Amino acid sequence: MDSLEDTLQRLRDTFRAGRTRPAEFRAAQLEGLNRFLQDNKQLLQEALAEDLHKSAFESDISELLLCQNEVELALRNLRNWMKDEPTANSLLTKTSSTFIRKEPFGLVLVIAPWNYPVNLTLVPLVGALAAGNCVVLKPSEISKGTEKVLAEVLPRYLDQSCFAVLLGGPEETGRLLEHRFDYIFFTGSPRVGRIVMTAAAKHLTPVTLELGGKNPCYVDDSCDPQTVANRVAFFRYFNAGQTCVAPDYVLCSPATRERLLPALQRAITRFFGEDPQRSPNLGRIISEKQFGRLQGLLGCGRVAIGGQSDEGDRYIAPTVLVDVKETEPVMQEEIFGPILPIVTVGSLDEAIEFINRREKPLALYAFSSSSQVVSQVLDQTSSGSFTGNDGFTFLTLLSLPLGGVGNSGMGRYHGKFSFDTFSHHRSCLLAPPGLEKLNEIRYPPYSDRNQQLIRWAVGTWSCTIL
Ligand code: NAD
């Protein structure tokens, strides 16, 4: 087996030789990825069931189909995305051609988490390959079933001279990060995001950080409680709450809380039956470590719904907590499990103030029958994404980017945003080799007349006059 150094050198050599640049090569890799997804659908579904107790249906709609959509979009648009983008010209550069070239960065490192281990590993890969990079993929060591398929089967479908899967946990990833990459795309926690960014800083490597945090969900008094309860419960308990954009806690008035509680109970029973542990549609907690952490959170505030857990099965019931204090762990850390605290506020302004006092979230949700209220929350807050009256359906759209702001991350991807993220946008100006007479005026010594002309030309940024 190659040493790490040999592997990285092999990929760098491939990139330097220009092998990954032609559209045909990129398309061949994307087609390989597509075949991998098609040929190994069942294997991936089984791995996801093993890792997270995902049903085949849930795996399809939240992982496999989304990857396939990304690959197909990239294949359809690759040549168009790769085209030089002509830009506006000025009077000063009128005789030149100016454009933006999207060029690959070189050797890219993609580090993925465990909660959607196929989607969050392969969707960035689509962008990186489409943009013509060589890629090192580091799947999560926690989602072991998926990690195995990605490590053993995926490389057979891609050109090994430009692609490698490297395995490991914090220690191995730390060692990997000591090497120089041309771009690092990281999805995971803000804590590890800081480690990645610190390592990247050493080489001035640009990064995308797709991080997490606590996503507020404001519910106002005008809402129909059952509709809100259905939507919030569906998106909170999907994948057993292990979703970076899931509503993390509800903010509402005490009166709305009382209306929501029985409605949430009805939604949970409708979705998962009287005994949710027996439902095929409820996921499991990924690891014992995460299970222990979540069990600790069940002790915050008062359990209003659920609260049961079974360590042997890594099962935690869909739970709603009330009377939680802001200082308790459940309101301090990202929950990332099937637990939903309801925090009461006196008014919309108070809810907005509560949200703005905290780190900028990855996602923010506002439920109201008044579009003015939804707009007010949108206008007066900041977050990676915003949804009025629904959950994270926006993730299925390739036209909307996924990305955080502040503590929830930097950069964005999905669809064409992925291609742009993995491409350096190179500013290009091609001047004619001749026409020196026209340039004479810009050289010193500057006559009054030439100064005047240059000032005018520099001040006329867009050449609409000529
Ligand atoms: P994590 O940060 O623990 O791990 C992510 C990756 O980093 C893994 O591949 C892991 O091996 C590696 N890693 C862990 N510790 C490391 C270290 N000390 N040095 C170097 N590498 C290290 O995250 P996780 O537990 O896998 O995922 C959960 C987190 O990811 C949550 O915070 C969630 O919100 C976030 N997340 C964000 C998005 C998004 O799109 N923004 C999507 C999914 C998950």
Please provide a written account of the structure:
- This protein has 466 residues and is of the alpha/beta class.
- The protein folds into two domains: 4-211 and 413-424, Aldehyde Dehydrogenase, Chain A, domain 1 (3-Layer(aba) Sandwich); 216-403, Aldehyde Dehydrogenase, Chain A, domain 2, CATH 3.40.309.
- It is 42% helix and 17% strand.
- It is built from 16 helices and 18 strands.
- The protein has helices spanning 4-16, 23-39, 41-52, 56-82, 119-130, 144-152, 170-176, 190-203, 225-237, 254-272, 288-297, 348-356, 371-380, 416-421, 436-439, 448-459; strands spanning 85-86, 97-104, 107-111, 134-138, 163-165, 183-187, 207-210, 216-219, 249-252, 302-305, 309-310, 315-316, 319-322, 339-344, 363-367, 385-388, 409-410, 423-430.
- The chain has a seven-stranded mixed beta sheet, with helices on both faces.
- Helix 2 (23-39) runs antiparallel to helix 4 (56-82), helix 3 packs across helix 4 and helix 4 (56-82) runs parallel beside helix 5 (119-130).
- The termini are far apart.
- The model has no long low-confidence stretch (mean pLDDT 96).
- The site of nicotinamide-adenine-dinucleotide has 29 residues, from helix 7 and helix 8.
Quaternary structure annotation: single chain
Q: Structural class, from helix and strand content?
A: alpha/beta
Helix content: 40-55%
Q: Count of helices?
A: 16
Task: Report the uncertain regions.
Answer: none
CATH architecture assignment of the largest domain:
3-Layer(aba) Sandwich
- Give the strand line-up of the largest sheet: 10-13-14-9-8-15-16
